[in-house]
Amino acid sequence: MTASFPPGFRWGVATSAFQIEGATTTDGRGPSIWDTFAAVPGAVAGGDTGEPAADHYHRWPADLGLLGDLGVDSYRFSVSWPRIQPSGSGRAEPRGLDFYRRLVEGLRERGIEPFLTLYHWDLPQALEDNGGWRSRDTAARFAEYAALVHERLGDVVDHWTTLNEPYPCAVAGYGEGRHAPGAKEGDGALAAAHHLLLGHGLAVQAMRARATPQHQFGIVLNQSPAVPVTDSAADAAAAARQDTLLRRQFTDPLFGGRYAPGLAAMFDGVSEFAFRRDGDLETIGVPLDYLGVNYYYRVHVADAPHREPEPALRTVADIGVDTSRLPDVPRTGMGWPVEPEGLTEALVGLHNRYPALPPLYVTENGCVYPDRSDFADYERITFLSEHIEAARTAAMAGVDLRGYFCWSLLDNFEWAHGYKHRFGLIHVDYATQARTPRASYRWYRDFIAAQRLG
């Protein structure tokens, strides 16, 4: 496999702030929408919250030691916006910036390249109280926040990612109600998707204004190709609608210079798209240095009637599709189909669709399986091996692929699933915070070492 990956190909792991840090009221951090959402009875499995998560805020030196032992050359993490701006605007909280400064310097000391993500779903609650991502002002506030972090860390961080997965933020958070802030809207969710992209563009512009030549800027999108469950025209059309909602709503403005064809027609009577303004596409489509692709599974789609007959009452997720019909293939512990070929399909599809596409990274890929007492997670090893092979196949097909990041370094707070599901290469005992590397940790360590030996 070594010869098929380009020189300098990066091997890494990924985490996110709210999922591992804990310390949600420490050193001036303000509340986020996930703190508020998790406090709602029944919103998160088991009544779990972001405390203590993996207590990474206090245990980061030991966690960096585990990173160093793993042998990765890159680490993708996120900054907590409410740790930097507790109310979502105004001056920066120096203790929050100092924490990330220590973290990044610790990475550098170990020869690990930091890939910093500015937003991984933890919007300051004060901004949500004023409309959240439905509001155009939040995009402006995001650019302000990005500039503050870049000013403090720009000398030690070269890779800057604006957003992680705007699709779940907008659709799961503002349309389906299963993620924070728990809204079920049509026009509001579409506005959130647009303003997330606008905030991305404004943030890149703000950071580039003071950037140095080594700085690179990108965004991370989840990519789940839609597969019709039959050869019927109706199911094919349903798959096209799913693809427009999940992928092209974001990729077309970013890399195609246009809003996704068919998006407005899909939501006729739901939204007038009044939140779009002249010049927005130019801001959203600011040239990027890389695109991160998160892949976990494909979506199998059948045509179905709208759940709400009246368009004005529909949520953004009500597009006349049924995604419940899973294929007869192996599944992970979360019930997700295991189809590594979907990663090849996602990467090659992006490469073929957008001539101006920047280089790609696989920025998240991982799985959940039931734990054994000896942490011999051989299913995860097989999953990772097969998906790395799928990434190699895409590179051989001409995709400019620069790296692969496994999700995740540590077990963590898995959003609405709470602490039920474990993605980590390292097991975390939440009662004691003890870390135990799984067999997959050792496999990935040995695999990376073998790649470097050639």
From TrEMBL:
Q: What NCBIfam families does the record point to?
A: BGL (TIGR03356)
Q: Which Pfam families match?
A: Glyco_hydro_1
Record keyword Transmembrane present: no
Give the enzyme's EC designation: 3.2.1.21
Q: Name one GO biological process term.
A: cellulose catabolic process
Q: What is the active site of this protein? A: 165 (proton donor), 364 (nucleophile)
Mind telling me what this protein is named?
Answer: Beta-glucosidase
What keywords is this UniProt entry annotated with?
Carbohydrate metabolism, Cellulose degradation, Glycosidase, Hydrolase, Polysaccharide degradation
